[in-house]
Amino acid sequence: MADTLIIPAGLTKEEKYKALLPQLKSMLEGESDGIANMANVAAALKEIFRFWWVGFYIVKNNELVLGPFQGPIACTRIARGRGVCGTAWKEGKTLIVPDVEQFPGHIACSSASKSEIVVPLFNNGLVWGVLDVDSDRLNGFDGTDADYLTKIAGWLRH
Ligand code: SME
């Protein structure tokens, strides 16, 4: 496996995703361990996009439990339907939150987090976890992030 990602300087966000995705796909195809792959996805997204926090929560005994992540320490358990992550899990859909303070029930793991996107991870139609990305800026995420993060999410298994 290549141990570095090659992303040229000066690209737009979408161009960065386009450069990253094939490299990430071949990295993930070369490794069968789900935790190892989630760890590298978190590292790649954090490094390339300089997000505040990137990580995974995995469904265990009907709650979300913190998995591989990059960034400051975070809440370890989230109930179904709670916060942005628990809501994305319950509804089985991607949530983009432009201002976390406006999301009822948002769970503030870090006061620096201003906006957030949560993408559910599916296997055979069931949500087995979520990918959660936080920005320290308002309006940090849009449909471009949703599209590409959903593609990445589809390559992951637990
Ligand atoms: N803000 C999330 C909790 C997880 S942290 O952002 C890492 C939520 O409301 O579900």
**Into how many domains do the coordinates divide?**
1
Question: Which word captures the global form?
Answer: globular
Tally of DSSP β-strands: 6
Identify low-pLDDT runs. Answer: none
- Percentage of residues in helical conformation: 25-40%
Q: Span from first to last CA?
A: 20 Å
Radius of gyration (CA) equals 15 Å
- CATH topology (fold) name: Beta-Lactamase
CATH superfamily placement: GAF domain
* Average residue pLDDT: 96
- The CATH class is identified as Alpha Beta
Helical region count? 4
So, CATH architecture? 2-Layer Sandwich
The proportion of strand residues reads 25-35%
How do the strands line up in the largest sheet? 3-2-1-6-5-4
Structural class: alpha+beta
H and E order: HHEEEHEEEH
Main pleated sheet: 6 strands, antiparallel
- Name every ligand kind in the structure: methionine sulfoxide
